[in-house]
Every structure is written in structure tokens, then in C-alpha cells.
Amino acid sequence: MLRQALLAASRSGGARRVVETAPFTRDVVRRFIAGETIDDAARVTEGLTGEGLLVSLDVLGEDTLDREGTEANVRGYVELLERLGAAHLGARAEVSVKLSAIGQTLDEAFALDNARTICTAARSAGTTVTLDMEDHTTVDSTLGIVHELRRDFPDTGAVIQAYLRRAEEHCAELAYEGSRVRLCKGAYAAPDEVAFTGKEDIDKSFVRCMKILMAGKGYPMLATHDPRLIDVAGALAVLNERDADTFEYQMLYGIRPQEQRRLSGQGAQVRVYVAYGQEWYGYFMRRLAERPGNLRLLMRSLVGRA
Ligand SMILES: Cc1cc2nc3c(=O)[nH]c(=O)nc-3n(C[C@H](O)[C@H](O)[C@H](O)COP(=O)(O)OP(=O)(O)OC[C@H]3O[C@@H](n4cnc5c(N)ncnc54)[C@H](O)[C@@H]3O)c2cc1C
Q1: Rg of the chain in Å (alpha carbons)
Q2: Among 7, 35, 71, 243, which residue is least crowded by beta carbons within 10 Å?
Q3: What residues contact 298, with CB distance under 8 A and at least 6 apart?
Q4: What is the pLDDT of residues 157-186, one digit of tens each?
Q5: Cα 118 from Cα 129, distance rounded (Å)
Q6: Would residue 215 be called left, alpha or beta, if left means φ above 0 and alpha means ψ between -120 and 50 degrees?
Q7: How far apart are CA 257 and CA 272, in angstroms?
Q8: Helix 2-9 to helix 292-302 angle, to the nearest 10 degrees?
Q9: Burial 52-76 (b: 16+ CB within 10 A, else e)
Q10: Given this model, what pLDDT does residue 303 score?
């Protein structure tokens, strides 16, 4: 119930104004967001990569509904990628892109062109792009765009959300050689017809999907903070005789940082997803929805006691 309410609030203009203008919200937000500027992103990326972690950077700007805003988001990615290239960080830091930030809602062909521009900049910087997966209504369109992009940029990463009932089918289709696939639970509201809604069902689906990806020929990117699923991932790596450089764990900036370092210290590849920019509201609200304890932090900040 609470999760659904927070996810509904993540798309509500009124709730957005309250959260964005509360006096101390930013302190809570900064736990999950690297900052608002490219300098903040570069500083955090240098820190994490210096510790042996990998990074995927998200320039916040989801649900942009006008062409000017969309073009500004694309420029933001190109500028970031130039910065990564100049700092020789391409081998350790890639970018994650939400198609809703670059025109998917306006016109699919426009979004594809924009994604090509970002992939070209990524290639020049010696790195890759992963297309995040958003609301369930966009899944077919997003997978179609991944498919198109992979003709010219075969290293484009896809994302599968385990809570979707079709997740296993999609994993089987994507478990081919060279295919980079992020598996996550799924962070958006979705109806029962298309998605599992109970935690246990979602976790079981995650395990089934991991089995397919880890037994397949692709490059699985296992995006979860869930200790039980991380243990299963380790067991599947042994079972499938996978070397540490044939898959990676992924976690979000600010969530279970010690676990990120523990896994990396054991020789695993761990990528931290780092979001930055001024449009942090939707991303932040999804982090609240994932964990009620985060909501308590926010409530304290809203009444000015944080
Ligand atoms: C790298 C990465 C990329 C992602 N990309 C996408 C995407 O493209 N599309 C999409 O729909 N979703 C994406 N997600 C979000 C994902 O779908 C889940 O909503 C999120 O990861 C929480 O699920 P979990 O697997 O960590 O398990 P959970 O069962 O939610 O959490 C397990 C444990 O992790 C910790 N934890 C999890 N979330 C939080 C939090 N917000 N604050 C504090 N602690 C927390 C807690 O200790 C919790 O007990 C991504 C997640 C990661 C890590």
C-alpha cells in the first residue's frame, strides 16, 4: 500500500512541490544522488573507480515531454561522456539512459536517433550505454530500440525487470553471446496482469531469470542489494563455471556501500549506479518506495528536524 502510494506520488506534481521545497530534503536526497552537476558526478566517479568499483552514470531527466528539454538531456550525456573520455575513465564508467528522458514519449524514432548520438559519444569515450527499463507500458518499445541500436552498437546493455511475468521469456531471448543484460526486480507500479506483486514471487522470478542468464552466453549484470539473491548469484557463478570477469553485480549509489566493497574485495566486479542532476524527484521517490525506513528520514526532514 505504502509502496503504491509513494510510486503514485513520484508522478504527482503536488507531492513534487512539497518534497522539492522542504527545507532539509536535500540532505536526505544527497544520500542517493551524487549531486546536481557534472563536477559532482566526476568527483564521485573518480572516488568509486579509485576504490576498484565500476560505475554507471545516469543524467537525471526522466519523463521529459518537450523537444528542447530532451535535446538538453542528450547534450548532458554527450558532455558527460566527453568528460569521461578526457579523464580516461571509459574503461570503468559507462552511462545508463532512460528513454523517457530522450524523447520516447514524443516520438520513438526521435528517441532512437538521440540514443544513437549518445552511443556514438560513448564509443568515442571507450565506454558503453545501458538503456534503463521504465514503466511496463514502455517495455516492448524499449526492447525494440535496444535491438535496433545493437545493429551498430552491439555492446548496448538491456534491462529486464524480474517482476514482469514475461521476464523469463525476455531473458531467454537476450542470453546470447556478447549481450549485456541487467537484471533488476523492477521499481515501477505495475498491475497484477503483467507483473508479480508479492516479494516472494518477484524473488523467485529473479532466481529463474538469473539461472537463464548465468547459464547463457551473454554478460549478466545482476542488479540487486538483496543478500539472498547475491548468494544465489555466487552459487550460480560456481555452478556455471563463470570467471569473475564474465558477469557483474550492480548496486545503487548510497545503498549497501559496505557490501559493494566486500564483493569487490573478493574479486567480483561491482558496478555502482550513480544518478546526478537537478531532476532527482522521480528517482528519489522510487528509492523511498523500496524501503519504508527512508521515508522516515524524509518525514523528519519535512518537519525540519533532520
Ligand atoms: C544498478 C541498478 C540498476 C537498476 N535499474 C533499474 C531499471 O532500469 N529499471 C527498474 O525498474 N529498476 C531498476 N533498478 C531498481 C530495482 O528494480 C529495485 O527497485 C531496487 O534495486 C531494489 O530491489 P533489490 O533487488 O535491492 O531488493 P529489495 O528486496 O528491495 O531490497 C533488498 C535489500 O536491499 C536494501 N535496499 C534496497 N533498496 C533500498 C533503498 N532504496 N534504500 C535503502 N536500502 C535499500 C535493503 O537492505 C533491502 O532489505 C535498478 C537497481 C540497481 C541496483
Answers
A1: 18
A2: 243
A3: 19, 25, 28, 288
A4: 999 999 999 999 999 999 999 999 999 999
A5: 8
A6: alpha
A7: 9
A8: 50
A9: ebbbbbbbbbbbbeeeeebbebbeb
A10: 65
**Quick one: which atom of ligand 1 is closest to the CA of 221?**
1
Percentages (nearest 5) of helix, strand, coil residues in the chain = 55, 15, 30
User: Which residue among 226, 251, 258 has the greatest number of ligand 1 atoms within 8 angstroms of its CB, and so is best to mutate?
Assistant: 226
Q: What is the pLDDT of residue 302?
A: 65
Nearest CA to ligand 1 atom 33: 226
Q: Which residue ranges make up each domain of the chain?
A: 1-33+280-306, 34-279
Set of cell numbers at residue 156: 548496448
Instruction: Provide the pLDDT for residue 289.
Output: 87
Three-state secondary-structure class, residue 1? coil
What kind of fold does domain 34-279 have according to CATH? TIM Barrel (3.20.20)
Ligand 1 atom nearest residue 206's Cα: 25
User: What pLDDT band is residue 306 in, cutting at 50, 70 and 90?
Assistant: very low
Which of 225, 272, 285 has most ligand 1 atoms within 8 Å of CB, for mutation? 225
Among all chains, which residue has been given the C-alpha cell 554478460?
A: 219
Please report the pLDDT score of residue 264 as a whole number.
Answer: 98
pTM for this entry = 0.95
Rounded distance, CA 101 to CA 243, Å? 35
Cα–Cα distance for residue pair 182/161, rounded to 1 Å = 9
